[in-house]
Write a structure and sequence with these properties.
Blueprint: E1 2-6, E2 9-16, H1 20-32, E3 58-64, H2 71-83, E4 89-93, H3 98-106, E5 111-114, H4 119-130, H5 138-142, H6 144-149, H7 152-155, H8 166-176, H9 181-188, H10 192-206, H11 211-225
Parallel strand pairs: 2-3, 3-4, 4-5
Antiparallel strand pairs: 1-2
Helix pairs in contact: 8-10, 8-11, 9-10, 10-11
């Protein structure tokens, strides 16, 4: 693995998993984009020296046409959970069904990147995730697959304010944009501890497992009530950790 320079920002990207040809093509694309990256097999990740100095900023996992439930993919996540538990993960996948997205989100990924998107968006996604944002393409959030894949509990969330206070709604809107607690606190002129309390209440009221799921639910609310933008690079993402 190696240091990645991205528009003046040094980021270290770990590329694990995937098939050899796809790995090499992805690595070559990143290199031609002015980045530097080395492929590391998941079985060797625990022994890689960069893990000891906290040098890895973002991990990319290419799942191909498999979901994150696949045993081989699950093995990668298990290894990452042991050796790099706090590092944000970007999944590149051929699958665009909502179930595959949910499987990935339940594992705590920070970005789901379909392989049919413009590869230049991947570069922006890496930077966005490194700065604290989340990314799921707009069409996967409010498309037909979302409506077919809604569970009964999700249906109960539709309409109204979902029991959120005015302050919680303001925080939720900024979660949808992928902003960090620090940025939200600055924009709303409140203490960061207050934002953390709002985030906990939002997740409780929306029955969301994490910030990413809460942000996606916020995007669904906009999709149900009117047009809205995706929580991703297409909207000039802001927010830093």
């Amino acid at each position: 693995m190696g240091a990645v320079g991205m528009k003046g920002t040094d980021i270290t990207v770990g590329l694990v998993g995937g098939r050899r040809l796809r790995e090499q093509l992805l690595a070559r694309f990143l290199e031609l984009s002015g980045l530097h990256i080395e492929i590391c097999a998941v079985e060797n990740l625990a022994d890689n020296p960069v893990r000891s100095d906290g040098a890895i900023d973002v991990v990319i996992i290419d799942t191909g046409d498999h979901s994150c439930r696949d045993p081989a993919i699950a093995k990668i996540f298990a290894c990452l959970g042991d050796v790099l538990p706090a590092i944000p993960v970007v999944v590149i996948s051929d699958r665009e069904d909502w179930r595959a997205v949910l499987d990935a989100l339940n594992l705590g990924i920070r970005a789901y990147f379909p392989s049919n998107l413009d590869p230049d968006i991947l570069l922006e996604t890496l930077r966005f995730v490194h700065r604290g944002g989340t990314f799921v393409p707009h069409q996967l959030v409010i498309g037909d697959s979302v409506h077919r894949g809604r569970t009964q509990s999700a249906e109960r969330r539709r309409g109204g304010s979902h029991g959120l206070t005015a302050g919680e709604q303001r925080v939720l809107e900024r979660l949808r944009r992928g902003q960090s607690n620090k940025v939200i606190a600055h924009e709303l002129n409140v203490e960061e501890s207050t934002v953390k309390v709002h985030v906990r209440q939002i997740m409780k009221k929306l029955n969301a497992r994490n910030r990413t799921e809460a942000a996606l639910l916020a995007q669904q609310m906009i999709g149900e009530s009117g047009p809205g933008g995706p929580p991703g690079p297409q909207h000039s993402p802001s927010g830093a950790q």
